[in-house]
Specification:
- The structure is a single chain.
- The protein has about 575 residues and is α+β, with helices and mostly antiparallel strands.
- It folds into 3 domains: about 10-180, no CATH class; about 190-310 and about 535-550, Uridine Diphospho-n-acetylenolpyruvylglucosamine Reductase, domain 3 (2-Layer Sandwich); about 315-535, Vanillyl-alcohol Oxidase, Chain A, domain 3, CATH 3.40.462.20.
- Helices cover about 30% and strands about 20% of the residues.
- It has helices at about 10-20, 35-45, 70-80, 85-90, 145-155, 215-225, 240-245, 255, 285-290, 325-345, 365-370, 375-380, 395-400, 420-425, 430-440, 490-510, 530-535, 540-550, and strands at about 50, 60-65, 65, 135-140, 160-165, 180, 190-195, 205-210, 230, 265-270, 275-280, 300-305, 310, 315-320, 350, 355-360, 385-390, 410-420, 445-450, 475-485.
- The strands form 5 sheets. Strands 17-14-16-15-19-20-18 form a 7-stranded antiparallel sheet.
- A hairpin with a 2-residue loop joins strand 15 and strand 16 (about 355-360).
- Helix 10 packs across helix 15 (about 430-440).
- The structure holds flavin-adenine dinucleotide and 2-acetamido-2-deoxy-beta-D-glucopyranose (4 copies).
- The site of one 2-acetamido-2-deoxy-beta-D-glucopyranose has 4 residues, from helix 3.
- Keywords: Oxidoreductase, Signal.
- This is FAD-binding oxidoreductase.
- Belongs to the oxygen-dependent FAD-linked oxidoreductase family.
- GO terms for molecular function: FAD binding; oxidoreductase activity.
Amino acid sequence: MSDSLWPSTGFGAMLALMSDLTGTYAHPPVLGVDWSEWTALNASIGGQLRLSTPFELPCFASFEGHALPPDSAACAAVQANYTDAPFRVAQFGAAMNAQWETCQSTGAKCLLDDANPSSPAAYQDQNCDIGNIAPLHIDVRAAEHVQAAYEFSSKHGVRLSVKNTGHDYAGRSSGHNTLGLWVSTLNKDLMAFSDAFVPEQCDGSHKAITIGAGVKMEDMYAFADKHNVTAIGGYHRTVATGYFLGGGHSVLSTVYGLGADRVVQIKVVTPDGKYRTVNKCQDSDLFWALRGGGGSAFGVVTELTVTVEPQLTIQAAVVAFPPSPSTLTAWYKLMADNALEWSNAGWGIHLVPGSFVAVNPRLDNAAASKAMQGAVDLANAQGGTAVVDELPSFYEFFTKYVVATENPVGPEVLPSSRLLSNSLFATESGKASLLAAIAQVPSALPIVIVASNPNPALFAYEEGSTSFTPAWRDSAWHFLIGAGFAYNSTLADRQQMYTLASQLMQPFRELTPGSGAYFNEADVYEPNHEQSFWGSNYAKLAEVKKKYDPNHIMDCWQCVGWKGASDPLFTCYVQV
Ligand SMILES: Cc1cc2nc3c(=O)[nH]c(=O)nc-3n(C[C@H](O)[C@H](O)[C@H](O)COP(=O)(O)OP(=O)(O)OC[C@H]3O[C@@H](n4cnc5c(N)ncnc54)[C@H](O)[C@@H]3O)c2cc1C
Ligand SMILES: *[C@@H]1O[C@H](CO)[C@@H](O)[C@H](O)[C@H]1NC(C)=O
Ligand SMILES: *[C@@H]1O[C@H](CO)[C@@H](O)[C@H](O)[C@H]1NC(C)=O
Ligand SMILES: *[C@@H]1O[C@H](CO)[C@@H](O)[C@H](O)[C@H]1NC(C)=O
Ligand SMILES: *[C@@H]1O[C@H](CO)[C@@H](O)[C@H](O)[C@H]1NC(C)=O
């Protein structure tokens, strides 16, 4: 397969041709495949094949080197909504972390300035480049569309990528020179509640909801609330399927497990073209792999069913104070000293320097206030604010404390992270080493601590039922550092930042030998990623990959079966 005509020269030319409706032109091949083949594919999938463009394109006067008139009204809408998650989710040519729209190794891009989206410096006299966005995509509405894509891929050697909401921190939902499968509207209205859901061919029933691939967290939560139950999911409105496939932590995970723990059935189109319903009684090896194996490595999921909990009364301690170096030292010490006790009491905490939100579904308000008194006192002594709020449901908590305080998306964010083992918190010397390592993190880089890892004393999981690293169950903290660079970074800036993010995590890796990291929120260049993301589960995961995707139709960055950074699929990743 040759990709020489695309996107470097073919794309802009083709767009110009497409806008000429006489239809008499011979289209150039796309991704090395005759246009007639694409037309046939399009016809076979009910006309769901789409040309992709970066969503910033309306601001630019040139695309792929070809003049194209800007559209100032459309540009103004993009500028006004540049950091809005639902706006980005609705566009194929957008990613939450904008660097994944771009070809980071070459610098080819089509970005606005996320710090000031109205700044014309980003787009005036600049060319808009397709970058790392899949140049063509299928707006997938049915399993048959995925089957057609697999067949097309096998026949023509065109590589595939799968995009849902575009949250992936390692760019797995972008795909330079791939045919994209966009699943963001696939079954987006499918939400079904069952008091007694029985997985096919299985015994035993679950109180559960079934959600389509395109269902976002905010819709799932609202739906569950309407049925007077609680769905366990992520701390953001628009995260979708990839959350469950990679693990999925919730602020309720301490008591109710990870997202993947709660999946009881999945419908998936595997690369052999079969549309399967998998659970612990049917294709149980694949079902297990999908519960934590991560990304699109095993196929395209059309829907999944997750167990729900009763409506819960939530205690939320919301504490904030102006951080200074000395109070932060005391703050982290308080957090580390209480980590195991708080986990055992069922707290789930999102913590950043100078504030946290701590959630508990088991305590009453008096007990919750007592448990959090130390944190409240520390904040109050600094002139901060602190409440221990009781909410009648998780949905009310989510609306009041998550949606209302959601970070903007759009900046070029890159995390690195480590699951910090319980044993580190069990001794004074362990805690002292941890606090010393935290003190070394440059204050310009945000630290995020997610202290809501599934606690086996509270959440009775079935041994061997999931494939994410077992380290999750023995780690009080999922510890993250967030680095970033500017929209107009140089290649050297990017290399330096990825390298720095990776290096800054090294002391935490050394403090926790044998532990791991969270697939969905990891260092993009995670060292020894197979051990890190999956631990003792990796060998079996690799077997499952071989069985269901022997020809590597569904590869993605640091996914199961990854062949390495030299795969041409990854030419837009920078070398570090
Ligand atoms: C702002 C923000 C907040 C977040 N909050 C949380 C949180 O609270 N808890 C948490 O655990 N994680 C969180 N994450 C991380 C999140 O879980 C991952 O980014 C995850 O990959 C998102 O999945 P997605 O489907 O929404 O996104 P996408 O980027 O579209 O997809 C992610 C991966 O899943 C694959 N994929 C998606 N849908 C399908 C499908 N139907 N079939 C097959 N493969 C599919 C994609 O190919 C890709 O590999 C957050 C991320 C961001 C950016
Ligand atoms: C696919 O077909 C539909 C319906 O005819 C059409 O609107 C769309 O533009 C076609 N896609 C491409 C990439 O030509
Ligand atoms: C985007 O921004 C404009 C202007 O502020 C606003 O009117 C519009 O509702 C926003 N959302 C979408 C989806 O365009
Ligand atoms: C909702 O669920 C709660 C907890 O199970 C129960 O106490 C309450 O009666 C239910 N409300 C309705 C309207 O069914
Ligand atoms: C990037 O953009 C900022 C803001 O417009 C500008 O100040 C800076 O000089 C630019 N940097 C480069 C390398 O072009």
